[in-house]
TrEMBL record:
EC code(s) of this entry: 5.6.2.4
Family that this chain belongs to: Belongs to the helicase family. UvrD subfamily.
PANTHER family per UniProt: DNA 3'-5' HELICASE, UVRD / RECB / PCRA DNA HELICASE FAMILY MEMBER
Molecular function as annotated in GO: helicase activity; hydrolase activity
Organism the protein comes from: Rheinheimera marina
Catalytic activity, reaction form: ATP + H2O = ADP + phosphate + H(+); Couples ATP hydrolysis with the unwinding of duplex DNA by translocating in the 3'-5' direction
Residues in UvrD-like helicase ATP-binding domain copies: 8-287
Positions of ATP binding: A29, G30, P31, G32, C33, G34, K35, T36
Protein name: DNA 3'-5' helicase
Length: 645
């Protein structure tokens, strides 16, 4: 079989999936059973049997995964410009909006970052509810996002997420309407809009549906278990034209907070009667001892996952479980253990450390610095989220979209003598103008606006369409104000502009460049580069999906962390936490090292355990929560034979 020749051996189940000929299929498999391999081989198989690559669309959860799959298919086909299309749902929809000759609405828009969304909600709140009394901007933003991603009724989501505010329903709706109106005025599109706008059009209009559906013969979807109802509403109408081939694992669904819906997996066949469910059972990644522990973790869940992974590669080391006095001792031990392994000849890059949150990573980073362990951190704050870069980019933003109110606010308030009040007044005027030329004219007549502020924008406008040159000019002309604003660490920050310039080298459109960084193109490039270095991979578990290493450490497996305090009291959240831990432990190929530390004195004073639930519902005491944390601790009933203490 051609794809097998390209992609390496396939077992009979994988081969059946790769060459499946009836209509739609969902391949369900546990971790390490070759789902990614099957997607790559399926694409190679389709191409080798004559399907034009541009008629195949591959949808993945991250841009990195999309680019890796495309690369692997290209490698398999020995053709590096094969023309296969791979994207996340967001980048796919953004391309549809921008490249449809206006069929899906205006094509020139600025994609908002979450920061921008929060700022806009804050302004809407100030306009609609000046005396307060409503949820904070982040809560309203998340509420609205959940409504759109789950396609549930607003009142239903409000009652579940923010029960205390049900009485203020109409006020919250007014804030959201104000936010929507402002977004329209400013030419903004938020993350959810990208999907929502496309979905609404194809839902309502047969012409739009056909226009999109006719572009594809095959749509291949990775990580189906993490798709949400909005994403399904985009896929289902296209099945009239294209064949859907999805892979997923219900035990690895960890994006419930983004509205991921099990139904997309569990109801697949009911929703698409001309479809088949295929299952892959053999795990090629881990040793049986690692799988025994993983199987046990799922077997004690109240949900019946029915996971019983069998290792093709047989037996190996029993997972280790180490307990330390505190988090620092734990982190130092991990660093020392890595140094020991490296000294014995194992490359750094054979190791991965999987943490729960960015904050958890900090203590590990400190220990790595102390013991000089080289590492790449896969969830670090991208450069583009830092203040000085955002400041420079704000100048480019307003040149690209003169109705970008938040861009104006950031840019104007950078300059001495321009306060919030003036900036608000001026940016309101700017978004009324017909173009950036008219804005510059008006700015020149404003007494409070420094000349240098206008000169930066004029200089950007005068340049040919090269985004990297624009960044260079803007950062050079803004050096004095930035140096003053970031005087404490300017010596470090000043070097970042070169990196951003390099990233922008191939771009001729500011909007396209800004959008790519909002949608994580930049992070994907960094992740890819970092994989080439010999370094330990330090990563959040959410960023580790699809990855594997010979030796994996899962630290901070302490009471109150798995499940985390915030999940207690909500059975769905606790189960999602279990799946997060499942993803972590199933990344290990040969050795799994679990570590934890004893609760600190502070935590031991039971009355001082965080009392979020108590605050919100007035029901539970801190003591109750401490007891629940102990009772629900995932390792509480861990059979001692599954680990080496
Ligand atoms: N038939 C096979 N023969 C040999 N190795 C295989 C086979 N199928 C998969 N593998 C190997 O097993 C490992 C896991 O495969 P892959 O990453 O495709 O699994 P997955 O199901 O996508 O895992 P996860 O869901 O955990 O990300 C890879 O190293 C892959 O090369």
């Amino acid at each position: 079989m051609a794809s097998e020749a390209y992609c390496g051996p396939l077992n009979p189940g994988q081969l059946e999936a790769v060459t499946f000929e009836k209509k739609h299929a969902l391949v369900l498999a546990g971790p390490g059973c070759g789902k990614t391999k099957v997607i790559v081989a399926r694409a190679a198989h389709l191409i080798s049997t004559g399907v034009p690559p541009e008629r195949i669309l591959i949808l993945t959860f991250t841009r990195l995964a999309a680019s890796e799959i495309i690369e692997r298919v290209e490698l398999a086909m020995r053709d590096s410009h094969i023309g296969l299309r791979g994207a996340t749902f967001h980048t796919w929809c953004s391309t549809i909006l921008r490249n449809s000759q206006g069929l899906f609405g205006p094509m020139d828009f600025t994609v908002m970052q979450r920061d921008d969304q929060l700022q806009l909600f804050k302004m809407s709140l100030a306009r609609q509810a000046p005396k307060g009394g409503l949820p904070c901007p982040a809560s309203i933003c998340d509420l609205y996002s959940e409504v759109r991603n789950t396609l549930k009724k607003f009142d239903q989501v409000l009652a579940r997420r923010l029960p205390r505010f049900v009485g203020q329903r109409d006020d919250i709706v007014a804030v959201i309407q104000d936010y929507e109106e402002r977004k329209r005025q400013c030419n903004y599109v938020d993350f959810d809009d990208l999907l929502f706008k496309v979905m609404r059009k194809i839902e309502k209009s047969p012409e739009h549906r056909a226009w999109l559906g006719l572009q594809y013969d095959y749509i291949l979807v990775d990580e189906m278990q993490d798709t949400n109802p909005l994403q399904w509403a985009l896929l289902q109408p296209l099945t009239e034209w294209a064949t859907l081939f999805c892979v997923g694992d219900d035990a690895q669904s960890i994006y419930g907070f983004r509205g991921a819906d099990f139904q997309n997996v569990h109801c697949f066949q009911k929703r698409l009667p001309d479809s088949a469910i295929l299952r892959l059972q053999q795990n090629y990644r881990s040793t049986q001892e690692i799988l025994d522990l993983s199987n046990w973790l799922m077997s004690v869940s109240p949900i019946h996952y029915g996971k019983n992974l069998r290792a093709v590669c047989g037996s190996g080391h029993v997972p280790e479980l180490h307990t330390f006095n505190d988090a620092q001792e734990e982190a130092f031990w991990i660093a020392k253990d890595l140094v020991r392994r490296h000294k014995s000849g194992v490359p750094w890059q054979s190791h991965m450390v999987l943490v729960r949150t960015r904050l958890d990573a900090e203590i590990i980073k400190e220990a790595f610095a102390e013991y000089k362990v080289p590492f790449v951190y896969l969830s670090s704050t991208p450069l583009f989220e830092t203040g000085h870069i955002k400041d420079v980019l704000s100048a480019l933003r307003v040149v690209a979209n003169h109705r970008d109110e938040l861009g104006w606010m950031r840019y104007l308030t950078l300059w001495a003598g321009v306060g919030e009040v003036t900036a608000t007044k001026v940016s309101n005027q700017m978004i009324e103008q017909s173009n950036i030329g008219a804005c510059l004219e008006l700015l020149s007549s404003e007494k409070k606006i420094p000349k240098a502020l206008i000169e930066v924008l004029q200089a950007i406008l005068a340049l040919p369409k090269q985004v990297s040159a624009m960044i260079k000019t803007a950062s050079t002309l803004m050096t004095e104000i930035l140096k003053e604003k970031y005087k404490d660490d300017w010596h470090v920050r000043q070097h970042d502009f070169n990196t951003v310039q390099m990233t922008a080298e191939s771009y001729v459109s500011i909007l396209a460049f800004l959008e790519d960084y909002v949608l994580e193109q930049y992070r994907a490039a960094v992740d890819k580069k970092s994989k080439l270095r010999d370094a330990v991979c330090l990563t959040t578990i959410h960023s580790a999906k699809g990855s594997e290493r010979n030796v994996c450490y899962v630290p901070q497996l302490s009471v109150g962390r798995y499940p985390s305090k915030s999940a207690i009291g909500d059975a769905d959240s606790v189960e999602e936490e279990r799946r997060v831990l499942y993803v972590a432990v199933t990344r290990a190929k040969k050795e799994l090292i679990l570590t934890r530390h004893l609760p600190s004195d502070w935590e031991l004073q039971k009355g001082r355990w965080p009392t979020k639930t108590k605050v919100e519902n007035g029901e539970q005491s801190g003591l109750d929560i401490a007891t629940q944390l102990h009772d629900s601790y995932f390792l509480k009933t861990l059979p001692s034979c599954l680990v080496k203490l």
